[in-house]
Specification:
CATH class of the domain at 265-438: Alpha Beta
Helix content: 10-25%
Protein name: Phosphatidylinositol 4-phosphate 5-kinase
Biased composition (Low complexity): 200-212
Mean pLDDT: 75
Distance between the termini: 72 Å
EC number: 2.7.1.68
Radius of gyration: 27 Å
CATH superfamily of the domain at 265-438: Phosphatidylinositol Phosphate Kinase II Beta
Number of strands: 32
Largest sheet: 14 strands, antiparallel
CATH architecture of the domain at 265-438: 2-Layer Sandwich
Region (Disordered): 179-221
Low-confidence stretches: 134-219, 244-265, 524-556, 654-670
Catalytic activity: a 1,2-diacyl-sn-glycero-3-phospho-(1D-myo-inositol 4-phosphate) + ATP = a 1,2-diacyl-sn-glycero-3-phospho-(1D-myo-inositol-4,5-bisphosphate) + ADP + H(+)
């Protein structure tokens, strides 16, 4: 078909639209050759621009999406993942002069940790690195029979907001760093050439020159471990390529988790079948309990007889469908209680079932702790499924009546939201117990840091060599204090006191505050992201210096609090939909929304979308290292919740004797009396979130 504008398409059709394999030459001589769906590029295809740029990879809804390779006319190449026409996810950027950058992108900007290899330095094999990525078309690690490690999709936004100061304490390197820093950011948003017009799919990333300038000119064996936030370089560590060459892994790909304790049999196909069995069981449970009229729970609903058991043979039965997994038995605990809890948390049964049991499947994520538990993540990131030990299951069922009343009385509770408890019995009598929980990090913002805080010092630090982008850090790794609005802080600690008192009454210990932090790129560097023809190098440096004289403000200047408007915020169902909107002192004690300029408008709830200012704690006695910190203060959005609440205190452990034998102060031991533990826990959090003035 020849269109009036001169473009020519030859290929398959359906219902008068392009559908199937086809080739289209646009009027400006751009060329697409590949798969189409309902008139748009979808599937695998190749797009060549008239200026010499070419993309080969996956498409969705007419835009580059999934795994793909872009080669620019100047010889630069990007091999990685795309979303909505932008580089988004893990990837490697190879410059024509031999420099390489392994890292992560979000909406076309570098975001997260990565490693830059100057030309001439030793780097990992590109082919080996690319083959090691086991992703689906969305850039997400998927659970398959050959892969048991999964990582959640990178999330973040592409705009920047203000921070307030710059660190310049590293002597002898500031000038060199400033030059590299300026060059790095001038290339982030380099404008497309005037002749680079695409009459087919629209993509800002495809039209750019691909960061045509070089990331470094050092022809040596020094490499740079870098961290970016929305395209701004915030941290850099200089190391040797020889030191890194033997241990480099693809970004975001954690080490293989070894099987541990009672989960040793869950390998390969068993793990795959376990996921299928879990989906079948939950679909059966929700489908059976939902038609039953809702009623108030009774004491019998918490008893030992409140169980549902069913056998799932492979060929199906009168009550179960045939399936492709292995035979298993399914046990559902307290179905009426959890049905009411899901309703209390405002979860629609159909959404809940489709989120966990849909065709997209579950994603396995590496365990952040030492429990040996297996964790699954639903495809939409709303739910986390964790395997339980028998002792943990007993504690959960024992505390369930009081838990039900507590979450009913306190809609803003920070305690983990439980949506269901189940057990699968496999061949040879192997039993696996699960609990379904809400994912407190289900957000459109990228979580840059995760902390598991207990208020303890003994063993509460992470080895530097084991820290990856998704690593959950501990108490002694926390190098920030978080300052927030007066009323937000008061509401936070009021609920923390209530939740700790509840856990103390149940003799629960060893719980943690799981803290997630989304950093906003320093706003005084906005100008350095402008096109290079708009700003000179001299202007870039002066704009950074101005930030040092700015005064601090609470709430942060880059995170705007405005009066809450229910129709202006996202109300999509999820683990955070329950809970009241918080009031802020800075907005006349009104209910507030959080506006991230150019990004989103979010409802501020307790533990969700809470704006703050992160002040980096400086250690003057610390020896100078190769790591260069560029900023002291960041605008952040924090997420938090109390987790690991299934450890009951047992006086027979003789904690005091353990303290004496190891010569530890009792206050440094994680396991101690519930009353002492809760006090220490709250005291530590008051230091993390200090009161203003």
């Amino acid at each position: 078909m020849t269109s009036p504008d001169g473009s020519v398409y030859s290929g398959a059709w359906r219902m008068n639209v392009r559908h199937g394999l086809g080739r289209k030459e646009y009027c400006n001589s751009d060329l697409y050759d590949g798969s189409w769906k309902e008139g748009l590029q979808e599937g695998h295809g190749s797009y060549s621009w008239t200026n010499g740029n070419r993309y080969i990879g996956n498409w969705k809804n007419g835009k580059m999406c999934g795994r793909g390779v872009m080669r620019w006319a100047n010889g630069d190449l990007f091999d990685g993942f795309w979303s909505n026409g932008f580089r988004h996810g893990s990837g490697v950027y190879k410059y024509v002069d031999g420099c390489l950058y392994y890292g992560a992108w979000s909406h076309g900007l570098k975001d997260g940790k990565g490693v830059f290899y100057p030309a001439g330095s030793k780097h990992p094999s590109l082919k080996k690195w690319c083959r090691s990525l086991q992703h689906d078309d969305t850039g997400k690690f998927v659970l398959s029979r050959s892969s048991s490690i999964n990582v959640e999709e990178l999330r973040s936004l592409s705009t920047v907001t203000p921070s307030l100061s710059v660190k310049t304490s590293v002597t002898g390197t500031s000038k060199t760093l400033s030059e590299r820093f300026r060059d790095e950011n001038l290339r982030v948003s380099e404008p497309p050439p005037s002749d680079f017009t695409c009459h087919g799919p629209s993509s800002k990333s495809a039209r750019s020159s691909g960061s045509g300038q070089r990331e470094g000119q050092d022809k040596n064996r020094v490499v740079y471990e870098r961290e970016y936030m929305q395209g701004v370089l915030i941290r850099e560590t200089i190391t040797s390529s020889v030191d890194r060459s033997h241990k480099i892994r693809p970004p975001n790909l954690p080490k293989q988790v070894k099987s541990r304790n009672f989960m040793t049999f869950l390998k390969g196909e068993h793990n795959y079948y376990l996921m299928l069995n879990l989906q079948l069981g939950i679909r059966y449970t929700v489908g059976k309990i939902t038609p039953v009229p809702r009623r108030e729970v009774r004491a019998s609903d918490f008893g030992k007889k409140a169980r549902t058991m069913v056998y799932f043979p492979r060929d199906g039965s009168n009550f179960t469908p045939p399936h492709k997994s292995i035979d298993f038995s399914w046990k559902d605990y307290c179905p009426m209680v959890f049905r009411n809890l899901r309703a209390m948390f405002k979860l629609d049964p159909a959404d809940y079932m489709m989120s966990i049991c849909g065709d997209d499947g579950l994603t396995e994520i590496c365990s952040p702790g030492k429990s040996g538990s297996i964790f699954y993540l639903s495809h939409d990131d709303r739910f986390v499924i964790k395997t339980l030990k028998k002792s943990e299951l007993e504690v959960l069922l024992k505390m369930l009546p009081k838990y039900y009343r507590h979450v009913g009385d306190h809609e803003n509770t920070l305690i983990t939201k439980f949506f269901g408890v189940h057990r699968i019995k496999l061949k040879l009598g192997k039993k696996v117990r699960f609990v379904v929980m809400g994912n407190m990090f289900c957000t459109e913002l990228k979580i840059h840091r995760r902390y598991d805080l207990k208020g303890s010092t003994q063993g509460r630090i992470t080895e530097k060599t084991k820290i990856q982008e998704k690593t959950t850090l501990k108490d002694l790794d926390l190098a920030y204090e978080f300052h927030m609005d007066k009323l937000l802080r008061e509401a936070l600690f009021k609920q923390i006191y209530l939740d700790c008192a509840f856990l103390e009454s149940l003799h629960i210990i060893d719980y943690s505050l799981l803290l997630g932090v989304h950093f906003r790129a320093p706003g005084q560097l906005n100008d350095t992201l402008e096109p290079p023809n708009v700003m000179s190098d001299q202007e870039s440096v002066s704009s950074v210096d101005v930030g040092m004289a700015q005064e601090l403000s609470i709430p942060p200047k880059g995170l705007l609090l405005v009066t809450h408007e229910p129709n202006s915020v996202n109300t999509a169902p999820g683990p955070h939909i329950r809970g009241s909107t918080l009031r802020a002192f800075s907005v006349g004690e009104q209910e507030v929304d959080l506006i991230l300029p150019g990004t989103a408008r979010l409802r501020v709830q307790l533990g969700v979308n809470m704006p703050a200012q992160a002040h980096h704690k400086l250690d003057e006695d610390k020896e100078e290292s190769a790591t260069i910190e560029l900023f002291e203060v960041y605008d952040v959005v924090v997420y938090m919740g109390i987790i690991d609440i299934l450890q009951e205190y047992n006086a027979k452990k003789k904690v005091e004797h353990k303290c004496k034998s190891l010569r530890y102060d009792p206050m440094t031991i994680s396991v101690t009396e519930p009353k002492v533990y809760s006090k220490r826990f709250v005291d530590f959090l008051q230091k993390v979130f200090p009161e203003e003035g």
